[in-house]
């Protein structure tokens, strides 16, 4: 069975700082990878997804993620965070038509 | 923009009582998922439907939980009897995936927050 690890549980940054959130998965076959975001009081929203092709994926709001197959990683990045990026971020993996398997999430707090 | 609807948004109940949650997926979405999210953790699948059929309920505690999607549209998740450990957020999601379609995005509803006293 697949699993997802997010090593950063709580990250605090100042506005304009760069962000990188780690995500590693365990599964030997083909995977689809996702980052979802949950803003305070809102429901889970898709930030970006990787299915195939270019391993550098660009999402909404200036976020991007890079799939490194050899490292089983799909880290999320943003060059300059804003206060409005304060949220919880979840990495998820999907194999075939199975449901998503989520990591435990990273709570990002951006200080103005 | 079409959204997944869930009700109620909040539910407080006493242990041993029965509770039910309702989900209406985005129109035309063949696949429907129920996830449970315990505070501080990521969502975990309870049950997956394709149309009216259960695809995966391996993580559903079947002694107390049941789920149905009778006409392949909306769905109900029931807990009877509720236990203290069932306190969590119950999320519904849907996707177009099914038939010849795969690699489709899952869209989530706002969730039902359950508190069992």
Tell me the β content of chain A.
over 45%
Number of helices of chain B: 0
Termini Cα gap of chain A? 41 Å
List segments of chain A where confidence is low: pLDDT < 50 over at least 5 consecutive residues: none
Tell me which oligomeric state these chains represent. heterodimer
Q: What does the model show?
A:
Chain A is mainly β. Chain A has strands at residues 3-5, 10-14, 19-21, 24-26, 32-38, 45-50, 56-58, 64-68, 73-78, 87-94, 101-102, 106-111. Chain B has strands at 5-7, 10-13, 19-24, 31-37, 44-50, 53-56, 65-68, 75-79, 88-95, 107-108, 112-116. Chain B contains no helices and eleven strands. Chain B is globular and about 45 Å long. Chain B has 117 residues and is mainly beta. Chain B starts with a strand and ends with a strand. Classes of the chains: A mainly beta (112), B mainly beta (117).
Q: Which helices and strands appear, and what pairs or packs with what?
A:
The complex is a heterodimer of chains A (112) and B (117).
Chain A: E1 3-5, E2 10-14, E3 19-21, E4 24-26, E5 32-38, E6 45-50, E7 56-58, E8 64-68, E9 73-78, E10 87-94, E11 101-102, E12 106-111
Parallel strand pairs in A: 2-12
Antiparallel strand pairs in A: 1-4, 3-9, 5-6, 5-10, 7-8, 8-9, 10-11, 10-12
Chain B: E1 5-7, E2 10-13, E3 19-24, E4 31-37, E5 44-50, E6 53-56, E7 65-68, E8 75-79, E9 88-95, E10 107-108, E11 112-116
Parallel strand pairs in B: 2-11
Antiparallel strand pairs in B: 1-3, 3-8, 4-5, 4-9, 5-6, 7-8, 9-10, 9-11
Question: Any descriptors?
Answer:
heterodimer, A: 112 residues, mainly beta, six-stranded mixed β-sheet, four-stranded antiparallel β-sheet, B: 117 residues, 11 strands, 0% helix, 47% strand
